[in-house]
Task: inverse folding
């Protein structure tokens, strides 16, 4: 789904603060997420991400600041806000003796679905997250990754317009991570606004439309945006003859960094990248690879050097 800048944000927060005694978990956090988009929330452990998401979910009262979720203020109209939200915590608390389908049916009934409708939706969602075979088995038999998938299904029981996903990839095997990425993108294509917190930055690059970085309780704005933009201009090139590659880049007047087995350049846009590649091929360079120099989000995270500040 393509969004427009005129569309009202599905999630909007400004100037949020939250302390626990002398611990200032969130100092100054602001963000905006449009319908039909996926936004990453990125930062080191202890920077305030989960506290921020709990406030957005209406599960924790901020000390200061404003929140709107699906147009509602969770502090003023908590029921309407929470009805619009699908919340997936970092760790799923399960009712060990209930089957997976019973758990989802119970959650659906708490949103005032009839038992039949809740059960029907539970069956659909278990199929979506590839847990149909566990429908009639108790939740206690699930692995950590399977519990994560059950948690995602649970967050969708109320058909929310806003999804808050806290570390959804934890415990997932590679295949499940790929499936998670596909599910998240399909949910966004349906028009849902999704805020996702994760440490798997390379995968986020392929999943999200935007990113919000946090450091020491603050969301970072223009500085982080500039770093992401700069990271996305870096391309890594390898060739069968590295010396020939360097010579061709020099002959074309293209500034580059020599990493012994590869060359890194900065490009203005995809059109520029295509012209550089064409010039190298025309010069007889046998290009082996020509692609972005890794995850832009990962490069930004490392450039911010968060853990060492």
Result:
């Amino acid at each position: 789904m393509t969004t427009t800048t005129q569309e009202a944000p599905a999630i909007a927060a400004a100037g949020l603060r939250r302390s626990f005694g002398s611990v200032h978990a969130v100092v100054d956090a602001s963000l905006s997420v449009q319908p039909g988009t996926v936004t990453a929330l990125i930062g080191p452990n202890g920077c305030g991400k989960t506290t921020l998401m709990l406030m957005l979910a209406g599960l924790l009262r901020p000390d200061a600041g404003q929140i709107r979720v699906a147009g509602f203020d969770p502090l003023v109209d908590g029921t309407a806000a929470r009805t619009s939200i699908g919340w997936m915590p970092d760790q799923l608390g399960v009712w060990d003796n209930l089957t997976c389908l019973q758990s989802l049916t119970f959650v659906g009934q708490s949103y005032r679905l009839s038992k039949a409708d809740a059960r029907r939706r539970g069956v659909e969602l278990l199929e979506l997250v590839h847990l149909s075979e566990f429908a009639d088995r108790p939740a206690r038999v699930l692995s950590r990754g399977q519990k994560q998938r059950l948690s995602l299904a649970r967050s969708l029981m109320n058909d929310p317009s806003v999804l808050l996903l806290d570390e959804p990839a934890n415990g997932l095997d590679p295949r499940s991570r790929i499936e998670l990425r596909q599910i998240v993108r399909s949910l966004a294509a349906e028009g849902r606004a999704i805020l996702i917190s994760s440490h798997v930055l390379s995968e986020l690059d392929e999943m999200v439309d935007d990113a919000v970085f946090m450091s020491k309780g603050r969301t970072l704005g223009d500085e982080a945006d500039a770093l992401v933009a700069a990271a996305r201009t870096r391309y890594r090139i390898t060739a069968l003859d590295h010396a020939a590659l360097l010579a061709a880049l020099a002959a074309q007047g293209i500034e580059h960094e020599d990493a012994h087995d590869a060359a890194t350049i900065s490009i203005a846009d995809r059109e520029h990248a295509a012209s550089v590649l064409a010039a190298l091929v025309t010069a007889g360079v046998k290009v082996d690879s020509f692609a972005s120099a890794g995850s832009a989000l990962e490069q930004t995270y490392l450039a911010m050097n968060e853990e060492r500040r």
Remarks:
- The longest strand covers residues 23-33.
- DSSP finds eleven helices and 13 strands in the chain.
